[in-house]
Structures are given as C-alpha cells and as structure tokens.
Amino acid sequence: MSTTWKGIVGTVAPALATALGGPLAGVAVRAIAEKVLGKPEASEADVAAAVTGASPDLLLKLRQADQDFARAMADAGIKLEEIEAQDRASARAREIATKDWVPAALAITNALAFFTLLFLMLSHSIPETNKSAFDILLGMLAGSLTTVMTYYFGSSRGSREKDAILGRAVNR
Predict the structure, then answer these.
(1) Which residues are CB-neighbours of 43 under 8 A, at least 6 positions away?
(2) What is the pTM of this model?
(3) Total Cβ atoms within 10 A of residue 42
(4) How far apart are CA 138 and CA 136, in angstroms?
(5) Which secondary-structure segment (H or E) carries 121?
(6) Which contacts qualify for 34-37: CB closer than 8 Å, 24 or more apart?
(7) pLDDT digit string, tens, across residues 132-144
(8) Per-residue confidence (pLDDT) for residue 105, from 0 to 100
(9) Could you tell me which of 76, 85, 117, 120 has the fewest CB atoms within 10 Å of its CB?
(10) Does the pLDDT of residue 63 top 80, yes or no?
C-alpha cells in the first residue's frame, strides 16, 4: 500500500515525495495530513488511505500542499535536492567503506528482472487476468531501475536545469 500512495505523491507532489524519502518524512506526512485531511496529527496510514482513494479535488489539495511545503523549505533555507544528494553520497560512501556487495547485487538483479519481464511481455501473450499485475510489476521495476541508475550514474536534474537556463538565455 505504501508504494501506491507514495507513488501518487511522487507524481502529484514531487517536493513532498523527496522529503518522504529522507529525514524530513515526518514533516512531509504532517504537511499532507494537514492540507489533505485537515488533521495534522493524522497517522501515516490515514494519509495513505486518503491519498490512495484521492478525488481530483484532493489531488489539487495535495499539489497545493507540495507548493506550500517547497516554499516553507526554501524560506527555512532547506534545499531538498542537497538533502537527496547527501543521502546518495552517504550510501555510496558506506558501500565503499564496508565493501558491501549487496547494493550491486540488488542493482543487477533489478535490471535483469526488468529486462526479463519486458522480454516476456513483448514475446509472449499475457493472459488478460494477469495483464494488470504484469503492468504493475513492470512499472515498479522501471521505477526501481531509475533509482539504481541515479544511484550509480547521478541524476539528470543538473542537466535539465542547464537546459532551462540555456533556453531562457536564447529566448532573450
């Protein structure tokens, strides 16, 4: 269930989703609970249930909560991208220091599972009763593969920002 509701938050409210994955998770859940449910003391399970069955009006509230949260973080001098980058750097440093093979094994397994499932879906006819389960699994594996690639090769956020700056400069 948590993957589903956090996936929705990731799509509708990226700043809150970034916070959910780090040390500001409690603050993010409270912000969502306050804006969406009107109860800042609501539990994570309450928030998950509300977001999972969200109406368009509720998704609009979630988007507003995201904008308010991003503005509050900026006003407080908290840079979510830096927190995310520090988290990845910390994980990489731990992997190097402990010579831990588990992250690499998980990354390889994830990539193999994704491409195997993709091959099977393209080369075989999936029964209608199982199609949605295969689609969900493929989506989850694709999202995980994106995370793996970001962990090992960095994100393209800097590239997108550079492109936006160059685009503004050209339009002048």
Answers:
(1) none
(2) 0.43
(3) 18
(4) 5
(5) helix 102-123
(6) 34/65, 35/61, 35/62, 35/64, 35/65, 35/68, 36/61, 36/62, 36/65
(7) 888 888 888 988 8
(8) 92
(9) 76
(10) yes
- How many residues are there in the chain? 172
Cα atoms in the Cβ-side hemisphere of radius 13 Å centred on 3: 7
CA 153/CA 145 separation, integer angstroms: 12
Per-residue pLDDT, 2:
42
Token pair for 56: 């368009």
Whether the CB-CB separation of 69 and 28 falls below 8 Å is answered with yes
What is the DSSP-derived secondary structure letter of residue 172?
-
pLDDT single digits (tens) 72-89: 877 776 666 666 667 777
More confident residue, 76 or 105: 105
The C-alpha atoms of residue 137 and residue 171 are separated, in whole angstroms, by 42
HEC per residue, 27-44: HHHHHHHHHHHCCCCCCH
* pLDDT tens readout for residues 11-58: 888 888 877 776 677 888 888 888 888 888 888 888 888 888 878 888
Where in the chain are the domains?
A: 2-75, 101-171
Residue 16 CA to residue 69 CA, distance in Å, equals 7
